[in-house]
Amino acid sequence: MSDRGVRGDPVPPAGVSREGGALFGPGPHASTGITSGIRIDTATIASLAGLAAAILQFAGALKSSPVLAGLPFDITVLSLLALPPLLALLLLTRRWWVHPLLAPSLAGAGLLWLWAVLAGTWSLSHDILAAKLPEIVLLGPLMLLAGLAVGADAAARRWLVGLVLVAGPLVGASVAWGLATGSVVLGGAVGANPDLVRVQYQLAGLIIACAAGLGGVRAVEARGWAGRLGWLGYIGAMAVAVLLPGGRTALLSLGLCVALVPVLRLWSAAKPRAALGWLALIAAGGVLALGVMLLNPARMEGLRTLERFTQGGVESSARPALWRAAMEWGGAAPLGVGTGGFTLAAGYGERRGLYPHNHLLEAWAEGGLPGLAFWLLCFGGAALVPLLRLRRMAPGRLARVAALVLPVAMAAMVSTDLGNRMVWFALGLVLSTGVVARRV
């Protein structure tokens, strides 16, 4: 079944929405003749917004590859420059149907950005505020819009999914090569700040987990056994790759993506038996892999992710202390300590790396009760969109969005801050489940 559009929804006539939505863009007969031919070509070019958005979303992980790290230009800057014009072209060459369910979340996002600006006026921070606030209020809206538009358009979404499926093995192989040669590429430079190692394994693990989830979707969609076995082999390779960088959250994300996203694909397509069969297959594969490692513990040597699990749980990290401090300041300061002011209030100085490591707690600590309310409206409202639209969504489209969002959502609750562009893009992807895009 195709993952384009919304299952069972006929294309509404110009200016009319059957469910109360709004249509934007010129009508289907807005151009003819030579102009029509140019418009079709322009629409194809516009779909490259999906590629630019994918590169910007996963640029940090892509730079793990020596090939990309050695380019004479920065792929982050290049994709950031390319995304706005391609995104504008995408918006102009499609007719858009937007469900009213998006309104609360978009209002929450706008209020959260506005409050971040206001809260910055009483923040004690200078360096963190100067770096973080532009990321929230300038890059955040761009990434949200990109996720919303790319997730809604079938052609742009194919570029996004395709890049992740290719980049997952590339990043995994790059990490393996770096471990074998004793070098790690961080942000495009060998021998960079060792403190960035944690960023390296987090970003690498994220794209590997996303790729594995998408591979699971392709496996259950494959029609022949050759295709199914091929995609199962792909998932296995990604499972091995995620054991190398050391990201525990990435490993958990991969497990959930591989187990649940294909089930979502099958269940929403009214195939409950196949969904249960997939769960049984993944459970059996996990037990088999665990048995192999327990029978021969030497196989675990060099698997940094498993080593970090054996070195202690969450209590061995700084996260519990940061979470407690964030909750204390959230309760003590009704209006928050100000954007970027948490580390100073907690006594850590201007060290951005010691942020609360939880999106919600950061909004509460730095934005107070208004920040917490706006965050819940923004992200909680977004979560309701796919839930309420579940029966109207094409199963393939819904599953692909879930595979791309789940690892980022988990990371947002344990290892990223409000200025992280990946979270805003993932939010846009979630909201895209309430949007339909058709070529003009």
From TrEMBL:
Localization annotation: Membrane
Transmembrane in keyword set: yes
Membrane topology: Multi-pass membrane protein
Sequence ranges assigned to domain O-antigen ligase-related in this UniProt record: 237-376
Record bears the keyword Repeat: no
Region spans: Disordered: 1-26
GO MF term (any one): ligase activity
Listed Pfam families: Wzy_C (PF04932)
Transmembrane segments: 43-62, 68-92, 101-124, 136-152, 159-179, 199-217, 229-244, 275-295, 372-390, 397-415, 421-437
Record key words, sorted: Ligase, Membrane, Transmembrane, Transmembrane helix
Main location: membrane
Matching PANTHER family: EXOQ-LIKE PROTEIN, TEICHURONIC ACID BIOSYNTHESIS PROTEIN TUAE
Record protein name field: O-antigen ligase family protein
Protein's organism: Teichococcus aerophilus
Lineage: Bacteria, Pseudomonadati, Pseudomonadota, Alphaproteobacteria, Acetobacterales
